[in-house]
Automatic annotation (TrEMBL):
This is Wall-associated receptor kinase-like 13. The keyword Nucleotide-binding applies. One of its GO terms (biological process) is cell surface receptor signaling pathway. One of its GO terms (molecular function) is ATP binding. Pfam families: PK_Tyr_Ser-Thr. Residues 3-190 form the Protein kinase domain. The gene is WAKL13_1. Keywords: ATP-binding, Nucleotide-binding. One of its GO terms (cellular component) is plasma membrane. It comes from Quercus suber (Cork oak).
Length: 190
């Protein structure tokens, strides 16, 4: 048996060695590792957990009943992984970007979110690299998004947040943005 590139030759016939998910895992995993090495040299950061496509499929009940949010950029499912509720962000409908651009965007999110540790920013737990566009596994926020809180979930209910709480939310949001723009950029530049 002779191995050449990604094909195996046996009795003069070519046979595909890697399944698509293995190819995506290798391709996306290599790019993620390269980005992490660049960003995290010598830092003590929590490693990113890599989930298999099968684990994600099981956690989301085959991507069906636990759909929690649709947007123009991604679809987010609620699931349970490692005995905790998570939000799983998957590729959404095609936008005017190449697959390579989408993969790079998701891998940048993984790398940057690993550096962020702030109480007002959603935590990043891991990702799945076995599909063409990687999936992100994030902290599940049971009360919904800030947009939902201010405008009502799916715009169905009116906001019941007092002006005092709105000012507090605006202040905490500004702290989180400041943290992301200054502290994370400093970590990236070290």
């Amino acid at each position: 048996m002779l191995y050449v590139g990604r094909e195996e030759y046996q009795d003069g016939k070519a046979r595909h060695v890697f399944e698509a998910k293995e190819e995506y895992f290798i391709q996306n995993g290599a790019m993620l590792l390269e980005k992490q090495i660049t960003c995290n040299q010598g830092r003590d950061t929590e490693p990113i957990k890599i989930f298999s496509a099968k684990e994600i499929q099981q956690a989301t009940n085959n991507y069906d009943p636990n759909l929690i949010l649709d947007s123009d950029i991604a679809t987010i499912y609620k699931g349970i992984l490692d005995e905790r509720e998570v939000a799983i962000k998957v590729k959404g409908p095609p936008i005017h970007c190449s697959t390579e651009t989408m993969v790079d965007f998701f891998l940048q999110q993984v790398t940057i979110k690993q550096l962020i540790n702030h109480k007002n920013v959603v935590r990043h737990y891991g990702c799945c690299l076995e599909i063409e566009i990687p999936m992100l596994v994030l902290e599940f926020i049971p009360n919904g998004t800030l947009f939902d809180q201010l405008h009502g979930q799916h715009n169905k209910i009116t906001c019941r947040i007092s002006w005092l709480d709105r000012v507090r939310i605006a202040t905490e949001t500004s702290y989180a943005l400041c943290y992301m723009h200054y502290v994370v950029i400093e970590k990236l530049n070290e």
